[in-house]
Amino acid sequence: MATINNLQMVPAYQIFVGQFGNAAAQWRERVDGLGCAYERMRELAKKEPGPYFVFCSQTRRVLAHIDTTRHKPNQSRSCA
Quick one: pLDDT band at residue 25, thresholds 50, 70, 90? Predict the structure, then answer.
């Protein structure tokens, strides 16, 4: 947690790339405040598409997630 003017505590959140629960998920950075963590997660996902999540170490819960993986369009098949 970070202290602002020694009065208010702002929780820190962890941003990961990958699927929650998957050992291949990689830590990206720590961000103070949930709103800031969510916005930063979106920025990272825009630069490098993929699945991301915001994790709270204190509660051990995922509080936000996004997947910007670019899927290839389905190739249409003609029915005969």
Answer: very high
